[in-house]
Write a structure and sequence with these properties.
This protein is mostly helical. The protein contains 19 helices and 2 strands. Helix 5 packs antiparallel against helix 6.
């Protein structure tokens, strides 16, 4: 017997959950220094133009597929068209189950640094390297993070994902505002603000465009079926474009807020703004140790990171759980427990690749790097290209009719969206995909 399908209680519930999915660690540790190194405000303008065209189009495509089919990725393509198209859904699910294990490892690091901040050891020299190479300790925090993710998903769409995202995302906003106020008030912070926001169009090249495309594409949770899954819980009496615009706008806002937290503090203390993940787990703890109330603000920072990681991980796990429910009639309770446990086990080798298994490589990559490359350089862009082509060439004109509530006419701008999906977005994503190699 098919299981009854839940739906979001309100429009706001979907927007908050989808925005929580899009707001992840990449927004916080990658966007600020990529923007600063590529022309600051000029990059931000370019990024916003791309995310509200290409990003919005792919996001809306996934959302439309899910709402029209009322199914998770593979089942959605089977219901709408059949043939070979369900393969796209399986690619999305595979992408989710490859990403979540190593993403949970990083989520575990954020929990570990909450503990290290409270203990006063977060800024110790070599502390980050010693922590991730420890062996069992990062695995313990990886397990705690995966357990927290499963706890939310097992409770369902309304009582689990929607309820907790309504708590976590506003909490994230409050944490970020507190940290912005502290960061911009530091002596010398104006240099970081200028680096981040002042437009320098002389730095804009084709590589800048490719960097903006890459950041826009990977920041809004498309390509792995998350928005097909979340879209399947949207009732048919709601219009989709406005919701998509809200999510894309919120995601971009969080990325800019992250820059106003990190870069003013980094420049105030003369640190390297392009250190990437090391900026988060090495440089910033050292900065927090040098400012009044540093333990408090360091705790808030890593709590913020944990919340951002958790809201994204919830959506990724939901893809796999929904797939098991739709394809194999596995209950949410059983599907969440078994999927969470199996993906926790898969994440252990990824964690150990920073310690005891660091010498185990394939194609010159560690286990962690190999999982990251396979998911983010192959499956994610490949899935997004396929979904865009499906909407632009196969599911059209039903896709246009599915944009608004039942009985409403397609919008006049639908033809622009069609050609964005059919030609422009796939070509640009392919360009980013090739550049990733």
């Amino acid at each position: 017997m098919a299981q009854a399908r839940e739906s979001w209680k309100s429009r706001g519930g979907f927007i908050i959950a989808a925005a929580g999915s899009a707001v992840g660690l990449g927004n916080i540790w990658r966007f600020p220094y990529v923007a600063g190194e590529n022309g600051g405000g000029a990059f931000i303008i370019l990024y916003l133009a791309i995310v509200f065209t290409v990003g919005f189009s792919i996001f809306l495509a996934e959302q439309t597929i899910g709402r029209a089919a009322q199914r998770s990725p593979a089942a959605a393509f089977r219901r709408l068209k059949g043939g070979v198209w369900p393969i796209l859904g399986y690619i999305g699910v595979l992408c989710a189950v490859v990403i979540l294990p190593f993403y949970s490892v990083i989520g575990g690091w954020t929990l570990g640094f909450i503990w290290k901040t409270v203990a006063g050891t977060a800024s110790d020299a070599g502390g980050f390297g010693a922590f991730i190479s420890h062996g069992w300790l990062p695995i313990l925090f990886h397990g705690l993070f995966m357990a927290a993710t499963a706890t939310v998903v097992i409770a369902g769409i309304n009582q689990g994902i929607e309820r907790w995202c309504r708590i976590l995302l506003p909490g994230l906003v409050i944490l970020m505002f507190v940290l912005i106020i502290r960061s911009v008030s530091l002596s010398g912070a104006e240099k970081g603000i200028a680096f981040f926001l002042s437009p320098d169009f002389s730095k804009v090249t084709m590589l800048t465009v490719q960097a903006a495309l890459s950041q826009a594409f990977f920041s809004i949770s498309v390509g792995m079926g998350v928005m097909i899954t979340y879209g399947s819980y949207i009732s048919r009496d709601r219009s989709l474009p406005g919701d998509a615009a809200w999510v894309v706008g919120l995601d971009s806002s969080f990325a800019i807020m992250a820059g106003l937290i990190i870069l003013p503090a980094v420049f105030a203390f003369g640190q390297n703004p392009s250190a990437g993940p090391a900026l988060t787990f090495v440089t910033l703890p050292q900065i927090f140790s040098q400012i009044p109330g540093g333990i408090f603000f360091g705790l808030l920072f890593f709590l913020m990171l944990s919340v951002a990681a958790l809201t994204s991980a919830i959506s990724i796990l939901e893809v796999a759980v929904a797939h098991l429910g739709d394809e194999h009639n596995v209950s949410r309770h059983k599907g969440t427990i078994w999927t969470g446990f199996v993906l926790f086990l898969v994440g252990i080798p990824a964690s150990l690749s920073f310690g005891p298994w660091a010498d185990i490589t394939l194609f010159g990559m560690t286990i962690f790097d190999l999982m990251d490359f396979f998911a983010t350089k192959l499956l994610l862009p490949g899935g997004a290209i396929g979904m865009a082509l499906f909407v632009g060439w196969v599911f059209w004109p039903d896709a246009a009719k599915s944009l608004y509530a039942e009985g409403e006419a397609p919008p006049r701008w639908a033809f622009v969206w069609r050609w964005m999906c059919a030609i422009i977005a796939p070509a640009l994503i392919l360009w980013v995909m090739i550049g990733g190699f």
